[in-house]
Amino acid sequence: MGVGGNLELLFGNTTYVSVSPHFAYYLTENFAVGPGLIYNYLRIKYPNSGIPTKTSQSIGGRLFARYHLPYEPIPFLGNIAAYTEFEQLYYLQNNYQTTTTSFQNFYVGGGYFQRTGLTSGTYIMFLWNLNESMFNNNNGRPLIRVGFQLGL
Fold first, then answer.
1. pLDDT confidence band for 71 (50 / 70 / 90)
2. Against a cut of 0.90, is the pTM above it?
């Protein structure tokens, strides 16, 4: 078992904060599944333009599965992982009126998991959204996610 997550911060005229903890349960030595929570905050200021500041938040959850390639016969391959995730978000926008929208993301991809223990380590993943919409349009570019996990 392991707990971990991601933290993203950006400050300036655009302020972005994203916190997404997760829990991983290893069904086998190489295969983990689990849930996660998501919170995103975005504020965009338009200084000296007369345009009001815009803010939005999104909250939700995710379910993921991650498979690490076996260490044998080549140990380096054990750090390579395949990944898939389903994410449900609720987008709250506060501009002239408060609006709430629900949307889903379905990510597939993989990455590198540098282990510091059996279920601990840091990772970088490249994920493609198979369900792009106006709320998550990356124009086919991958989402790059960096995070950590601590074994329990």
1. confident
2. no
Amino acid letter for position 5? G
Per the DSSP assignment, residues forming a β-bridge with 31 are 67
User: Which option is the CATH number for 2-151: 2.40.160, 1.10.1060, 3.40.30, 3.30.70?
Assistant: 2.40.160
User: Six-digit token pair at 41?
Assistant: 């905050």
What backbone torsions phi and psi does residue 49 show, to the nearest 5 degrees?
-115, -15
Residue 30 token pair: 């190489």
Specify the length of the chain in residues. Answer: 152
What residues are paired with 80 via a beta bridge?
Answer: 112
Q: What is the pLDDT of residues 96-124, one digit of tens each?
A: 666 778 888 899 999 998 888 777 889 89
